[in-house]
Write a structure and sequence with these properties.
Helices cover 28% and strands 11% of the residues. With 188 residues, the chain is α+β, with helices and mostly antiparallel strands. This is Knr4/Smi1-like domain-containing protein.
């Protein structure tokens, strides 16, 4: 997982997975990507950065279940305040946390602050599978470049190295996993 340089093979696989062949018209463009990064004090991890700049900035043809959101968009069922999102603050987790099963979570007022950080610090929302299940791409902190599933009961990193799937970690691994299973093409 190279977070600083886009691999041409990964970009080709991403383009194929999202079935994007519009000559980059749906892409954000480099000027807009750099403006977004400057406004938030971050640098997006590769290959996602090149993907939104050159391929597409959101798509209904791929993962997650309800489509890939634009880099600056939040799902329509997002319960938080957009003003609370602070992308340049480190994402607070490095291991899965099931707050629903955490005995300290119910009794600790600091847990509310940590939960807010999980949802709002150091990540962009890639999209939703519905039912308050959001896929995040971590953009700051020790897990930069990793994809996390954050739901109403807990948060877990995506990828084989974390024991939750056999797929490679990161945006490209997440997309390859979806493309191999093509859940959005099952209706027919």
């Amino acid at each position: 997982m190279n977070l600083d340089h886009a691999d041409p093979a990964e970009l080709a696989a991403l383009r194929a997975a999202f079935d994007v062949d519009d000559g980059g018209e749906s892409a954000l463009g480099w000027e807009a990507v750099r403006a977004f990064e400057a406004a938030h004090g971050i640098v997006l991890p590769e290959p996602y950065r090149t993907f939104v700049a050159e391929i597409t900035d959101g798509s209904y043809s791929g993962p997650p279940e309800y489509g890939l959101l634009s880099v600056a968009e939040l799902p329509s069922d997002w319960d938080g305040d957009v003003e609370e999102r602070v992308l340049n603050e480190p994402f607070p987790l490095t291991a899965a946390w099931l707050w629903e099963e955490d005995p300290d979570a119910a009794a600790d007022a600091a847990v509310d602050d940590r939960l807010e950080q999980v949802y709002n610090h150091g990540s962009i929302v890639l999209g939703t599978d519905g039912c308050a299940m959001y896929w995040h791409l971590v953009v700051t902190g020790p897990h930069r470049g990793h994809v996390w599933l954050i739901s109403d009961v807990g948060a877990a990193p995506f990828g084989q190295r974390f024991g939750y799937t056999t797929a490679e970690p990161g945006f490209a691994g997440w997309v390859r996993h979806w493309a191999a299973n093509k859940p959005w093409h099952d209706a027919a």
